[in-house]
Amino acid sequence: MSFSSYFTHKSGGDRIFAVEAPKIKFGRDSLLEIGDDAKVLGMTRVAVFTDQRVGQMEHVAKVVESLKSQGLDAVVYDQVAVEPTDVSFKSGAEFAQDGKFDGFVSVGGGSVMDTCKASNLYSCYPADFLDYVNAPIGKAIPVPGELKPHIACPTTFGTASECTGIAIFDLLEMESKTGIVSPRIRPNLGVLDPSVLSSLPPLVRAANGFDVFSHACESITARPYTHRPAPESSQKRPLSQGANPYSDLACLEAIKLIGTHIEQAVNDPVEESYDALMFAGMLAGIGFGNAGCHLPHGMSYAVAGLVKDYAPEGWPTDHSMVPHGISVIVNSPAVFRKTGPACAERHWKAAAAMGADLTDTKVEDGGDILADQILGMMRETGIPNGLSGVGYSMDDLDALTDRSYAQKRLIDNGPMPISRDELKEMFRDAMSYW
Ligand SMILES: NC(=O)c1ccc[n+]([C@@H]2O[C@H](COP(=O)([O-])OP(=O)(O)OC[C@H]3O[C@@H](n4cnc5c(N)ncnc54)[C@H](O)[C@@H]3O)[C@@H](O)[C@H]2O)c1
Ligand SMILES: [Fe+2]
């Protein structure tokens, strides 16, 4: 690829990137068309996945009504765990198998959409739980065939799970998050209705906004696809291909939208804020769905998995958790300071898109400028002050490092090789920022 030196081919690297574009509908009242969409996909008996809080809201009622208006049978499963685990994935799969459904609709955040993907998978192709889970934790056996149709309706805007072939969960025995990755678990259709966001609590909006931002920023600063070893065959090219010109486009625009709207969207939202956030989430999803995330997400799985007693406002209080967007963004400034020199211009461009004042700055300081910009926005939107703000101390550095060093897929997708010691150093730097 000659138009950007970042994509200059490295010996043994891939020369090809593939674009998997999700099928999407975007706009207010798009939820009212679900019945029609489900019918077109051949559904007659539909499992509607949600969690207990969203299940009480009008969003699920609208979807069920729309399905019924088309003569479809709809059964609601509202037992999805927020921040799901292997145990809650298995419960969803049992429900899916017992109910003899021919289609799935998920209405909720990433927790709900991911649980629905996994439930569809294990009910179609029962297997030992770790069979489809990412290596080295699981066996990463390819999904054997097509799943039943799934329409995903996000009620948050951060995860873009409606766009991706990824399902994330907490593997309880390992106290760490991991996932299942396959193009076959990508929903057949994502339906994004921004009006659903008005009921999100402010800190959930902030956490989602930073999840979007980090998806986009990690994709732009990921290892170029031309440096990833060429696959043995086209079928073995991974979903996380590394930075590429297509994902760059979507991600820069997503960062701009988040930079422009996040503070207002958290502190004093107007209708336009929700449209912008949801569109940004979708764009970043298209970007990271093809490029892949790297260190902030790889580190986040340990931060979420080893949680102590942190229980933030806006999430269910029945158990401690470091919600996804928070577990990611507390690492990001430390990571971008470290990765800055590997592709300074990309960090600098991301900071510019986010609205940083670049007067009298140097491109080679891109990593630090980006980190400072993120920190300013974290403070404006009530995000905790690094790892110490979510309950960790220096005594936890080894445990955090070991858990995340196992996230090989994500660590390898960073712009530079990272040793265990360097990873530990980043966790140390992320402990407290201000
Ligand atoms: N599959 C992927 O590609 C991917 C990417 C990033 C994150 N994830 C995963 O997604 C999960 C996090 O998802 P999330 O951030 O979307 O949040 P979530 O689904 O965990 O929901 C967070 C809270 O917000 C509530 N909620 C959801 N929509 C609401 C609404 N419209 N109004 C009021 N409350 C609402 C939920 O009931 C819950 O209490 C994590 O498990 C994370 O690991 C998946
Ligand atoms: Fe994420």
CATH architecture of the largest domain: Up-down Bundle
Can you write the helix and strand succession as a string? EHEHHEHEHEEEEHHHHHHHHHHH
Describe the largest sheet: 6 strands, parallel
What percent of residues adopt helix (DSSP H or I)? 40-55%
Structural class: alpha/beta
Q: What's the count of strands?
A: 8
Please specify the SSE layout and strand pairing.
Blueprint: E1 24-26, H1 34-40, E2 45-49, H2 52-55, H3 58-69, E3 73-77, H4 86-98, E4 103-108, H5 110-124, E5 150-154, E6 166-171, E7 176-181, E8 189-192, H6 202-220, H7 245-267, H8 271-291, H9 295-305, H10 324-329, H11 332-339, H12 344-353, H13 366-380, H14 397-405, H15 408-411, H16 420-429
Parallel strand pairs: 1-8, 2-3, 2-4, 4-5, 5-8
Antiparallel strand pairs: 6-7
Helix pairs in contact: 1-3, 4-5, 6-7, 6-8, 7-8, 7-12, 9-14, 11-13, 12-13, 14-16
Nicotinamide-adenine-dinucleotide binds at residues 51, 53-54, 82-84, 108-112, 114, 155-156, 158-159, 161, 164, 166-168, 196-197, 199-200, 204, 208, 315-316, 324-325.
